[in-house]
Description:
mainly alpha, 6 helices
Amino acid sequence: MSTGRDDSESSVTASGTTEGEPTTDEDRSVAGMRGPDGPLLRLFRDRRIAFLFVGGINTVVGFGWFALFDITVGQLWGYMVTLLFAHVASVLCAFVLYRRLVFRVRGHVWTDLMRFELVYLTSLGINAVLLPLLVEFAHLEPIVAQALIVFVTTMVSYFGHSLFSFRRKEPTA
């Protein structure tokens, strides 16, 4: 479906399309994130579903990083260091997956990564508060506590990325 705009302009548009690429409603992403379709759109045909699919993968991968670091560095330095290591590895994996498979935005790599990290730092802050509360006061094992926390941080991440990460400015008239 056409948006009614003149698609013959030869520049990168706010939706991330380049010259000659039509701007359609399907190019519009979740809550303002824009970019040409990523490869998962061939499978799902709906950017929201692709976003949720990658989010599910990120949740599993992030939990895997936490478990891996818990049995390695966590044994030496504790669960909070485990959380920090898992955070760094998880953010980098998630950024690449969203950027390559779902949104396919161009340019602004460092700006996008910074904004992406800001969303995840919010989740990390929540995680850093809840994890010791659940481990020290509820007497849960760190793995069990993290499994519970991941539901909260997944929601924070979803809304943060859908409203902030990979966002491009609207073109001015």
